[in-house]
From TrEMBL:
Binds 2 magnesium ions per tetramer. Belongs to the class-II aminoacyl-tRNA synthetase family. Phe-tRNA synthetase alpha subunit type 1 subfamily. Mg(2+) binds at E254. The keyword Nucleotide-binding applies. The gene is pheS. One of its GO terms (biological process) is phenylalanyl-tRNA aminoacylation. This is Phenylalanine--tRNA ligase alpha subunit. It comes from Candidatus Dorea gallistercoris. It catalyses: tRNA(Phe) + L-phenylalanine + ATP = L-phenylalanyl-tRNA(Phe) + AMP + diphosphate + H(+). Tetramer of two alpha and two beta subunits.
Amino acid sequence: MKEKLQNIREEALKAIQTADVPERLNDVRVKFLGKKGELTAVLKSMKDVAAEDRPKIGQMVNEARAEIEAALEESKKKMERAIREEKMKQEVIDVTLPAKKNMVGHRHPNTIALEEVERIFVGMGYEVVEGPEVEYDLYNFEKLNIPDGHPAKDEQDTFYVNKDIVLRTQTSSVQARIMEQSRPPIRVISPGRVFRSDEVDATHSPSFHQIEGLVVDKNISFADLKGTLEVFAKELFGPETKTKFRPHHFPFTEPSAEVDVSCFKCGGKGCRFCKGTGWIEILGCGVVHPHVLEMCGIDPEEYSGFAFGVGLERIALLKYEIDDMRLLYENDIRFLKQF
Ligand code: DAH
């Protein structure tokens, strides 16, 4: 019996030594220590051993078992370590290789220009608000003093969803919404997309963007409008910039004006950029018409206000000296990357 145990022990240890993969080790475990294993068989045959020898043999079986188990464990660890090392060798990272460059997107010139305009007005205490692109005729026209049949409606021909709903032609629609919803003091700008049934060319698009401005409070006058837009122009185009207010007509403001800025390219002398005039038109504005205030539930005896509307694309084209509006919509990365 003793000899048999000795043989099993040696045989098992040898098998462990020659095992080359973890699966072989498992075979060894099953063969010698498993339920039907050789060592287990010895234990089972203990009944044939003389009673006085049993403790001795039992102890020897246990010792053999412990030894085989330890050898299995050690061998398994060794194999795992070797496998890990091999894997690490294969996965070696060459830090001197050039990195793969990630393509990072780029802000659109419109976005850059909008953020600049927002920065200027937020700095003056304005809030940025938004309105819907699909708008009631009521807010886009009616409440802005443009009733049915008004010629201004022709100028801003647009896409009708039905008789009462249009794709808004101007962000001025947000003026009416804000005045209706809130009480003065109101100081907001509202950027967004507008739609007109225009043919595409270098300066026109059926869909473009505007930024609306509205201030309503007690004692607001044209002087406040002038001061505000002067600061805006200087911030946007540089401290040398001069502004010129030319009388104009908009149905929802009275008086109304268009604002020109001195050409930031030639300083006003006249160049290709300003078509030789020294001035560049940038926006429309005026004092909010009392009837508009009234229609939006604000008492014109108590409050007054001013409003203005800027074309965002126009600002972007001017600021970045882009001479064709279509470039802004093509989203050619080679173009966009430049700004
Ligand atoms: N909504 C006008 C347009 O699209 C621009 C405009 C003019 C807006 C005068 C204003 C304003 O708020 O006071 O042509």
